Model the fold of this input.
Amino acid sequence: MADGNISADSSWTIQDAERVYGVSSWGGGYFQIGDNGNVHVVPTPNNNDVQIDMKAVIDEIRSENIQFPVVIRFHDVLRSQVINLNETFIETIKEAKYEGHYRGVYPIKVNQMREVVEEIVDAGNPYAYGLEAGSKPELLAVLAYNTNTEALTILNGYKDEEFIKLALLGRKLGRKVVVVIEKFSELQLLIKVAKELNIEPIVGLRAKMQSKGQGRWQGSSGERAKFGLSISEIINAARLLQTHGMADTLKLLHFHIGSQLPEIRAIKDAVNESARIYAELVKMGFRLEYVDVGGGLGIDYDGSKSTADSSRNYSLQEYVADVIYGMREVCDLEGVPHPHIVTESGRAITAHHSCVITEVVGEIKPDGASVDLATGENEHVLLKNMRELSLSLQEQSAGADEKSSLRNYQEIYNDATQYKEQASDAFGLRVIGLEELGKIETLYWQIMRQVQHFYRHAEFVPEEVQSLDFSLSSQYLCNFSIFQSAVDSWAIDQILPVVPITGLHTQPVNNGSLVDITCDSDGKIDRFVIEHAIDSVLPMPAYSRDEPFYLGLFLTGAYQDVMGDMHNLFGRLNEVHIFSYDDDPQDFYIEEFVRGSNIDHVLSVMQYHPSAMAIDVKKLIDKEVSKGNIKPREGVKWTDFYENSLSAYTYLNTD
Ligand SMILES: *Cc1c(COP(=O)(O)O)cnc(C)c1O
Done:
């Protein structure tokens, strides 16, 4: 990567910005860089004429006095993803003359926000697209929201008696609720409860697969998988149902080999394996109707179309074709009916629809400050040495031939680094004072900038000098918490695209990593996809310090939106929900504003009593007033200030 201060180049184009930030590679057709250098949203990818300028959305948010950071949800994107998945299955099924239907479900754990679930249910209604739940709270939500009686409700996860009763309530309401058995004892419980209540269940069996997904979640299959039945258990389960006269309730075979599958091979293998199990069960006399191939459809977060953990080496079309054709082939060979196909894609449905917009609130530079370098009396030899180095560097740049310079620059780098380390030791041993240390530090960073500048166009750059690009780069302090808004980037090194929202029509002038406002040194992002490779710094365009400057964290709609934690009590973000207008391609409206966490809310979660605290603090202030330490009028102001602060947004107020 280029060094800290890149001089502006007037030949810079939008194509260059596209190459650097890769917006169309990871954007799935929903994001692009507009001619004005702002990031644009294209809500329906096959209609490029409808484009929303993200800067216009931000301006609208500001005019509504909504504080940043903000989550922006594009409901059109969510709808498009649901339609796209269903239509792709319908087309492929037709093309393959496949005899089953597609009956997808959305697993709500990926993003349980009510507005998200409602939008998905609504967009999926014409396709009888259903919902999946993996816990009791999710099941309660799904029972209330998945009201299409043609759509499936799939229940995964470990279950107790209450869970099973709720599932059977769904059956009473005329829904296609499938209880997927994750461990054998659940089946015994299900049979017992179903008999007691005299309600016919729909039973699914989750198979422990031999086929392994690659990537971070490969532990989801194989013998040590947490969920699912072994082949012997599947046989026993089917037989147990038969003994109870319930063979006909067994309708679905399920597997899930992991999330974010980077490799298409794993999907093909698993489809083949599940088709074989399905066919054998059918031949044993069990009339299964559905094969549920689980989730795992990946997202190309880094835009590389590779088998890297943050990518996928296949398209949606390929995925769907491999499922349909793979299933058809085995079924035709075995002479069994084609089952209906269920998928549980979550990430692929929701990742694109939301992003986090954060403001840059400061820039931390390693050499941000310098002290007066005036020569003092009796300077320590370490400082003198550093001065001489700095001086010799100036002579270097004035004359000398290229080759000898190269050698000298590396020497200067090494010497300066050594002097700085020695100075730090000397300070600890009380050999030099604070002022001298400050001068040494200032000189050191000046030298490092010059060394870096010298190597800018060099063919060979020594490794230690390469690392200067990072150590001399800025840290952009951004108003957000990575633990709330991008937890996977902290927890599992997930790559999420980060792009400045404006200024992309000009060449970047600086590089930097991001740090958040938590008091945690892990609260940072220093892995970016730049020019199709992982880089530790993000190129930044010039921006005015007088105006807020915004960065977008993209593809946060899956998991990130809902898995965040309360580190430092920052809590949930303000959210705006955006819809586009059909009749005006550039226009949009904020359909809803969902307020993020206020301070009193996050304190209450931690068992504080904010209103009692306000009274206590008022008493303390009154006491100082009565002692004459605070004037009565000021006391009232301080009391109000404390109370108002309790109801404020948890993040930095930059207005
Ligand atoms: C998490 C999960 C999913 C969703 O996986 P994605 O990779 O987000 O599509 C689907 N099914 C089951 C059983 C899951 O646990």
Notes: The CA atoms of residues 3 and 469 lie 6 Å apart. The chain is about 40% helix and 15% strand. Residues 402-428 form the longest helix (27 residues).
